[in-house]
Structure formats: C-alpha cells, structure tokens
C-alpha cells in the first residue's frame, strides 16, 4: 500500500484552518475570497490537485473539461501533483488547492488534525445518498461519524494466474484454498541446480492485509480502544508469508528480485513468465492489454482458509478519495465540483477509463464496464460481504509503517513472529488517545 511518510502537526494545521471560510453556504453563494473576483459575470476559479498521471490523468482532465463546459460560474484548473507532501506544505502555508485527491488510508490522520474540511453539512444539505457507497470503501473516508472525503475509486486484489504455466505443471484451474495455494507454489516454482530461482509460483511476501481478511483477523478493537497486531487472524497471515518465504530464503529471493523487470512494462514478472501467479489489483488487466496482449491468463478469488469456509471471497479494500482542504478559498464551489465528480455518471466514466472499481453500489453493474478487461470478475468479487478495510484511525500511517517494518523483519528472520507482533503493539498502542 502506498504510504505518506510525514504526518501533520495539529498546531500548524489549526493555524491554517483559521484561513478557512466558516460554515456551509447555500447553493450559489461564493466562498470566502470571492470579493472582487466572484461576481455574477465572473467565474470562480478552482485549483484541483490530483495524484494520477499519464493516461489516468488525461481521463480526469476530460472530466474537468466536461464540468467546465456545463457549469457557467465555476472554472476548474487541474494539476497532476503526485507528491502529496506538497499538499501538506500548501495547507500549512495557508495556500492550499481548492480540492485535491488522496488515498483513503490517510483520511483520518489528515482529517482529525485539521487538514480536511468535514463534508457532512454539505452532504445533508444536498441529500447525497451515502447508502449508495460500498460500506468498506466509505469507511475509509470517515472517522467517528465525521465524513472528511468521498471515495471515487476502490482497489481490491485478486489472484492472477498464467494458464499456460499451470497447464504445463498439470494443474487445472486456479487454487481455491490455502492448502491448494501452497501446493501450486511448490509445483510452479522453478529452482536451478545451483539453487537460483528461475520462476516463482507466487511472490512469498504476500499481502498481509488481504490475508488477514481471509483468516478473519482484525487490527483494532474499538470497544477496548486497542490495536490488535497479535490477533490470531493477522498472525496466521504473517505465518503464511513466513512459511512461503523460508522455502526459498532471503538471499535467493533478493537475487531473483533484482533481476525482475519494471512493473508497468512488458517485463512485468507475471507478463514475462517469472511469476506463475500474482496477487494484484483491478488495474492489472488494463496493463496486460497494453503490454502483454497475448498473455493467456485467468483471474480468481483469493484462496480461502478451508477451516473457515464462511470467509470465502474475503478481501481488502483500499480507496482513492477527493477532499476539500482546510483553508480552501472557495469551499462551496469546491463542494459542487467534488459532488459532481463522485456522482454515478462521472464516477463510471472515470473508473472505466482507468480500470479502477467504482465505489457506488449502483455503479458496479453499469454496462460501461462490459469492455473493461477483468471487470466482471472484480465487480462480482467486490460485492462479497467478506470485504473489509484497514480501520480508519488517526495513527493509521504509523501503524501500517510499523507493520511493514516488522513484517519484513519477521520474514528475514531478524525477529521471531510473536516478538515482532509484540513490538508493533508496544510501538503503536501509546498513540491511541484515551
């Protein structure tokens, strides 16, 4: 998961928040700072910073163009800005964009420290139906009853597999259970006589967040206000990765990894036959169409734990969101644009163009996705009641960073499993507010 290394200082953000206009205005009223520039005959100009680049950025620019052509009083100027640290710098400096994109994992930490303007008054006033959003996706944009952003796209991982390599190994269809997965990895991995890896059935550092959902684990106990890295489900997820990792060893895996090609290219390990299987997101079929159109592949649910069949079709949801920064000069017009962007029609256009999943339930079966590679599998999978997301917490980034560090240490044998999980608890629990 993508992470932001630097968090906000509450005191600094509060000072920036003082620049924000107060309260929600009636439709048509300009935001603070309109005097002399927001008259009836002049358009309010909004600055919009978004993290997408290349063709994905171009798809968003098309929507910006459509909005500008259909809204007389607002002119939006987009800027592809994938360095999110610059958003923080602009907010703390009192000169933020009017609207911006972010990742759901950062919403709570930014929101509670004053970087994001709450949207609930706007939502209530304009009767935006939050029930139409996938619950796990919407939860990434909320904390303790406050909505700080709206999710435009969600990201779910599934199992991709090379049908030709499975057939060569005498395997029919994808693995369905965790036991199947282990067997497939053994049969599909190729090790040379000198011990060097030629092919991996699956990269052993599996997605611990997704597999925690598979094993029915949790990261947070809201009743006790306690982080739970020692939860049995999370422990099982890490154990699975450790077991697979130890089959090959750090030295061999590092050497093999250094020889792999770039992800977004024809040399992607799955495209080039270096991986027989891969756990990846809904955007990958679009890349396959672009870089490896002849790849004979399939998409399947993440294998489930046969001892927990009720957890079949479990997975982890991440999101991309839009928000209004504190201190935005034109919050009312920013809300009008944000609301328009996240309405079903625009959401479908954007996510279908870039190969991401929509966050509105009503959009999941839209015919616009019929021609998007892989979307049938992903949209059906996303409807599963066993989809979850990492809990939205003010210290979410610190928690995930610590998990990443200790996960790596456990895989490489620098710390024992139980001790590593204990260290996560000791490091993060003090961050919990009483």
UniProtKB/TrEMBL annotation:
InterPro entries in the cross-refs: SBP
Signal sequence region: 1-18
Keywords: Signal, Transport
Coiled-coil segments on the chain, per record: none
Pfam families: SBP_bac_1 (PF01547)
Stated family: Belongs to the bacterial solute-binding protein 1 family.
Protein name per its UniProtKB record: ABC transporter substrate-binding protein
């Amino acid at each position: 998961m993508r992470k932001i290394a630097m968090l906000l200082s509450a005191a600094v953000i509060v000072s920036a928040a003082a620049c924000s206009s107060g309260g929600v205005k009636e439709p048509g009223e300009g935001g603070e700072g309109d005097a002399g520039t927001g008259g009836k005959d002049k358009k309010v100009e909004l600055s919009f910073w978004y993290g997408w680049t290349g063709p994905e950025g171009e798809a968003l620019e098309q929507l910006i163009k459509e909005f500008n052509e259909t809204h007389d009083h607002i002119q939006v100027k987009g800027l592809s800005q994938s360095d999110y640290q610059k958003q923080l710098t602009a907010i703390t400096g009192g000169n933020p964009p009017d609207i911006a994109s972010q990742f759901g994992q950062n919403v709570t930490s930014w929101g509670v420290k004053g970087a994001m303007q709450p949207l609930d008054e706007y939502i209530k006033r304009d009767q935006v139906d939050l029930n139409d959003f996938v619950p796990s996706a919407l939860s990434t944009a909320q904390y303790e009853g406050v909505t700080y952003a709206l999710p435009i796209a969600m990201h779910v991982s599934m199992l991709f597999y090379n049908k030709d390599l499975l057939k060569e190994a005498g395997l029919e269809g994808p693995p369905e259970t965790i036991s199947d997965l282990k067997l497939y990895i053994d049969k599909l991995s190729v090790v040379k006589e000198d011990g060097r890896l030629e092919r991996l059935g699956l990269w052993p550092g599996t997605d611990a967040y997704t597999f925690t959902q598979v094993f029915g684990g949790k990261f947070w106990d809201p009743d006790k206000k306690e982080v739970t890295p020692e939860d049995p489900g999370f422990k099982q997820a890490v154990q699975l990765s450790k077991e697979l990792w130890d089959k090959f060893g750090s030295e061999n895996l590092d050497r093999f990894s250094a020889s792999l090609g770039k992800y977004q290219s024809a040399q992607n390990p799955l495209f080039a036959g270096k991986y027989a299987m891969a756990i990846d997101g809904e955007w990958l079929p679009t890349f396959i169409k672009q870089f490896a159109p002849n790849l004979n592949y399939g998409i399947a649910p993440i294998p489930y734990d046969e001892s927990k069949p009720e957890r079949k079709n479990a997975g982890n949801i991440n999101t991309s969101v839009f928000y209004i920064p504190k201190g935005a000069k034109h919050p009312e017009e920013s809300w009008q644009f944000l609301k328009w962007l996240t309405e079903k029609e625009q959401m479908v256009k954007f996510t279908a163009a870039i190969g991401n999943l929509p966050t509105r339930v009503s959009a999941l079966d839209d015919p616009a996705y019929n021609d998007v590679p892989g979307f049938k599998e992903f949209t059906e999978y996303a409807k599963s009641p066993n989809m979850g997301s990492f809990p939205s917490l003010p210290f979410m980034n610190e928690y995930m960073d610590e998990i990443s560090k200790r996960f790596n240490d456990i895989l490489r044998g620098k710390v024992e499993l139980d001790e590593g999980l204990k260290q996560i608890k000791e490091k993060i629990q003090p961050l919990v507010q009483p």
